[in-house]
Amino acid sequence: MLTTQSTALEGVLLIDKPSGCTSHDVVDHVRRKLGMKRIGHAGTLDPLATGLLVILVGKATKLSQYLMSLDKVYEGTLKLGETTDSQDADGELQETTPVPALDADALTCVLDTFLGDQYQTPPMFSAKKIKGVPLYKLARKGKTVEREPRFIRVASFDLLSFEQPYATFKVACTKGTYVRTLAHDVGQKIGCGAHLTALRRTQSDQFDVKNAVTLDTLDELSLMDIKQHLIPIYRAAPSYVL
Question: For this structure, is 88 an active site residue?
Answer without folding.
Answer: no
